[in-house]
Amino acid sequence: MAEIKLTGNMKVKTLKAEFKKAFGATLRVYKNISCKAGFADDDATLASIRAAGAKGGELKIVGNMQVGNFEKKIADMYGIGIQVANASDSALADNSSTIAAAGK
Fold first, then answer.
1. What gap in Å lies between CA 37 and CA 55, rounded to an integer?
2. What predicted TM-score, i.e. pTM, was given to this entire model?
3. Which residue from 40, 61, 100, 103 could staple onto 29, CB 3.0 to 4.6 Å apart?
4. pLDDT tens digits, one per residue of 28-60
């Protein structure tokens, strides 16, 4: 089963590319937890866009993780918003589906 390791020094573009390669789904990364401030800069690291007070850390992402749980974990750890979309980036994945299913 595919998996990737997310760390604070990872750039946004690297995370999105590795996520797409591992799971086939598209990852949208935003500047803040509400996802209303626009997309995060692709050259920014996760630590650099982390919200004040967010602890950051390392997270192993696996395909059988539910989309909603993954999005919440990132929000809790980094204080940033993410959304998982389908492979063509035309629709958001259902929060109850797995990350692997979102890419199919």
1. 21
2. 0.93
3. 40
4. 999 988 888 899 999 999 999 999 889 988 999
Q: Is 4 helix (H, G, I), strand (E, B) or coil?
A: strand
Helices (H), 1-104: 12-23, 46-49, 67-78, 99-102
What does the alpha-carbon distance between residue 14 and residue 89 come to, in Å, rounded to a whole number?
Answer: 17
Residues paired with residue 3 on neighbouring β-strands, in sequence order: 62
Rounded to whole angstroms, how far apart are CA atoms 75 and 26? Answer: 17
Q: Do residues 13 and 42 touch, judged by C-beta distance below 8 A?
A: yes
Per the CB < 8 A criterion, the answer to whether 73 and 59 are in contact is yes
Question: Residue 98's CB: how many other CB atoms inside 10 A?
Answer: 21
